[in-house]
């Protein structure tokens, strides 16, 4: 499938979460008493974080016709008042010229900052942090209910090569960088709420500066790891009919059976594609944050999505709104990845006997391989029978 389209779809789904449409609409207000200007109800509704229809202000920028007619009598601005000018600036209707150069230099007022900040400090931390705790609790419960998945009959003692050194290097580059990014990302997002009260501003400041430096630079290793693992493993992760059988058998997790599988089973394919798709998306939004205002992606993505699904996402975004969307999206995708990866780490280490060796020294026990990847073992043995190697 077209990666851009896929990214756009995933992006749109998260936008539903972020777009200030999460706020309820404020009740309609009669503004005749104020001559169409703001009322106390408007101010109160905004304080209650209701979504106020601002068109009564954004479309009230003075009457250009009358302004032009009386310009000469009243000076340069004619019939346009100070309020008209400030409203024009706020709603990006004025043609601003500044001496400062830069992609967002001519945005003098932007009011997306507060909703963005509240979303980041509120629901993102609460739901994101909650999801991480949730998956950890779930895995602990799973461990006590199901126990470690053992090799039936014990290990055979014979080894079979599962991953070559270059594959393990790609995996650990991806894994090491992801873990570093996850920790430094969480520190940046949650430090203000959870660390400053404990270690104080000065210590946190040093930690935050180091964390940001690490996060920005380790990101390149993650992207390299992503490309490497994609190239090496994509052929083994194309979905096929067998995956459906594996899913129907629940991976044999509770029935303690061993559904057939080639090199990667359906569960692993799900992890692979989650890592690849979300990995590309987190990288793109990360690049957009790394090069502020230079890689805006949301307006374009929204118009593609609107074109396909007939949705109504905003397609005219200010440079700051682009950054705010990128930031929120980056966190949502990162949390989704962390949840999947915590489950992956569990099953690749304490959750399953013999699994870690595959990425440890590259060789797994033959009995483990027969039980979890029978068709792959058959393929390798057939090749070796013909004098080839795995
Ligand atoms: C300490 C952390 C980790 C451990 C112990 C671990 C362990 C493993 C093991 C043992 C395998 C091979 C499974 C097999 O033989 O079939 C594997 C595969 C894989 N790992 Fe990890 N891993 C870790 C972290 C990560 C991270 C952070 C990522 C990505 C961000 C990742 C992505 C993958 C992918 C895409 C595969 C191939 C598909 C799959 O087997 O699910 N791993 N990992």
From TrEMBL:
Please indicate which superkingdom the organism of origin belongs to. Bacteria
Q: Tell me which stretches of the chain form a coiled coil.
A: none
State a single Gene Ontology molecular function.
metal ion binding
Gene3D superfamilies, A to Z: Transmembrane di-heme cytochromes, Chain C (1.20.950.20)
Q: What are its GO cellular component terms?
A: formate dehydrogenase complex; plasma membrane
Query: Which residue numbers delimit the Cytochrome b561 bacterial/Ni-hydrogenase domain?
Result: 162-359
Bilayer-spanning residue ranges: 124-145, 172-199, 219-238, 270-293, 328-347
Which key words tag this protein in UniProt? Cell membrane, Electron transport, Heme, Iron, Membrane, Metal-binding, Oxidoreductase, Signal, Transmembrane, Transmembrane helix, Transport
Q: How does it sit in the membrane?
A: Multi-pass membrane protein
Query: In which compartments does the protein localize?
Result: Cell membrane
Annotated signal sequence is 1-23
Example of a GO biological process term: respiratory electron transport chain
Necessary cofactors: heme
EC number of this enzyme = 1.2.1.2
**Broad class of enzyme this protein falls into:** oxidoreductase
Q: Which NCBIfam families match?
A: formate-DH-gamm (TIGR01583)
Q: Which family does it belong to?
A: Belongs to the formate dehydrogenase gamma subunit family.
Tell me the protein's name: Formate dehydrogenase, gamma subunit
Q: What is the species listed in this Swiss-Prot or TrEMBL entry?
A: Marinobacter excellens HL-55
- Lineage, top ranks: Bacteria, Pseudomonadati, Pseudomonadota, Gammaproteobacteria, Pseudomonadales
């Amino acid at each position: 499938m077209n990666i851009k389209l896929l990214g756009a779809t995933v992006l749109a789904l998260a936008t539903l979460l972020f777009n200030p449409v999460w706020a309820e609409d404020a009740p309609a207000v009669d503004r005749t008493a104020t001559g169409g200007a703001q009322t106390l109800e408007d101010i109160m509704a905004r304080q209650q974080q209701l979504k106020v229809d601002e068109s009564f202000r954004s479309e009230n920028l003075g009457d250009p016709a009358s302004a032009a007619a009386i310009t000469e009598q009243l000076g340069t601005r004619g019939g346009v008042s100070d309020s008209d000018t400030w409203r024009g600036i706020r709603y990006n209707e004025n043609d601003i010229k500044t001496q400062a150069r830069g992609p967002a230099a001519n945005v003098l007022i932007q009011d997306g900052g507060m909703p963005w900040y509240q979303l980041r400090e509120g629901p993102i931390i609460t739901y994101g942090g909650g999801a991480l705790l949730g998956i950890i609790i779930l895995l602990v419960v799973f461990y006590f209910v199901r126990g470690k998945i053992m090799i039936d009959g014990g290990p055979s003692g014979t080894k079979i090569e599962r991953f070559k050194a270059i594959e393990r290097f790609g995996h650990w580059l991806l894994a090491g960088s992801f873990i570093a990014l996850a920790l430094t990302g969480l520190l940046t997002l949650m430090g203000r709420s959870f660390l400053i009260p404990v270690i104080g501003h000065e210590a946190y400041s040093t930690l935050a500066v180091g964390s940001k430096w690490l996060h920005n630079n380790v990101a390149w290793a993650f992207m390299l790891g992503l490309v490497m693992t994609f190239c090496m493993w994509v052929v083994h992760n194309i979905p096929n009919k067998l995956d459906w059988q594996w899913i129907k058998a629940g991976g044999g997790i509770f029935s303690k059976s061993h559904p057939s599988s080639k090199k990667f089973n359906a569960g692993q394919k799900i992890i692979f594609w989650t890592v690849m798709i979300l990995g590309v998306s987190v990288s793109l939004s990360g690049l957009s944050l790394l090069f502020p205002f230079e890689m805006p992606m949301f307006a374009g993505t929204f118009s593609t999505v609107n074109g396909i699904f007939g949705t109504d996402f905003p397609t005219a975004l200010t440079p700051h709104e682009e950054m705010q969307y990128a930031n929120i999206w980056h966190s949502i995708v990162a949390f989704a990845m962390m949840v999947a990866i915590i489950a992956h780490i569990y099953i690749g280490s304490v959750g399953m006997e013999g699994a870690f060796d595959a990425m440890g020294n590259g060789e797994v026990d033959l009995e483990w391989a027969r039980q979890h990847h029978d068709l792959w073992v058959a393929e390798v043995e057939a090749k070796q029978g013909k004098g080839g190697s795995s």
